[in-house]
């Protein structure tokens, strides 16, 4: 009865938390200041031409390394419950290793954490959002299994310094981007296009690294600080185009995109999704390999990884529909490593668009994904770690308000009708930032940043005012006074 009353009024449960996110390389700038080492993104943008849409880079970005007080101020203005930001590994450990720790960097993030806490904003820290120290890349990066140890020692430095104040940790952001965009497609740093083995070696190593950090926390810090730790997985919802023909293909697609990074952690049995394991073995043997290109887990490794998520962190942006490829069609990129699937992923007809076709807007996919994940992995807690609208520079971003509202409605709906346990929502992004290969062309910020002004002023968009009202009332029924004259459609 209680739940019914709460949801009927479009209220969120009282303990539901709202946040906004950013990542180090996308906002900090100061790429070579105060002892910071070079990261793979520094190297990528400085040495390649024709890969970043506007030939820009993150050398200065939103200058948050210097303007972080401004970031804390706007987070406070929004009344955020938490701010999700990432720490630059290369800033803390310029060569990637623990023998060389940069004290200026340690102090920098410590100051940010303290300032957030002073404003009553919980710091949610991502340990790795794609900016690997180049020295580690020179040693093979995420394809070298030793990275699990390197990552563990980085994690230890972070825990030692910040675990007293940081209670929510995300080890790794979007492993699929690290492995499949970084090593398979090769469009993201380090820009390696090796479609057979590298993405799958990376897949296993990323999970081992995550699990090492998780186990370290449990062993040494959990009793004392009682924090929670997980990763942030990019989830793509996939519809079958034609029923019942494409149902199985849609499941396989989701196992490939979502399951390869979730099943080892959240399933009862651990390890790879069985369907993927089977397909990868068959492809590999047919290709003349003597074993699967997907590296196996030992039983011990399976158990080591299984259960290493205190909640499921998910980044949801978009949805596709899947169908078999027709004669002469080349399967979508994510299946390049296993072309035999011969599947195509198309944008569904009910999608709408901001400034990015790739991130076509399909709010229902968030609800469908949450429901699917609960059915697949059981009654676990979900934290939406990213969800954001690619827009333009305009300040009157009614479309972004609509986006936030529609996605939050989906969240409320699955909480209400299917009892899915969602503990919080993170809007991507707090402010406009360097959007990787998109450069500065599309904007996600609740706050606009003027990248032509050396002072990089932050200015609230209408969506910032709307989001602050949602947070303030803990509800989608925001009051008229709060939103003033923001026109919000039903
Ligand atoms: C998020 O990834 C990231 O976590 C965040 O850092 C980023 O700012 C945000 O997206 C918005 O872009 O250009 O065809 O190669 C979401 C998943 C995967 C979506 C890579 C964009 C690039 C497609 N992203 N993808 S393409």
How would you characterize this protein structure?
The protein has 18 helices and eleven strands. The chain has an eight-stranded parallel barrel with strand order 1-2-3-4-5-6-8-9, surrounded by six helices. Strand 10 and strand 11 form a beta hairpin. The chain starts with a helix and ends in a 7-residue tail after the last helix. The structure holds ligand GBH. The site of ligand GBH has 17 residues, from helix 9 and strand 6.
Task: Write a brief structural summary.
The protein has 490 residues and is of the alpha/beta class. It is globular.
Rg value: 22 Å
- Shape call: globular
Helix-strand sequence: HEHHHEHHEHHEHHHEHHHEEHEHEEEHH
SSE class: alpha/beta
Q: Provide the list of bound ligands, each named once.
A: ligand GBH
Number of strands: 11
Helical proportion, percent range: 40-55%
- Tally the helices: 18
Low-confidence stretches: 1-7
Q: Report on the biggest sheet.
A: 8 strands, parallel, barrel
Protein name: Myrosinase 1-like
InterPro entries: GH, GH_1_N_CS, Glyco_hydro_1
Pfam families: Glyco_hydro_1
GO molecular function: beta-glucosidase activity
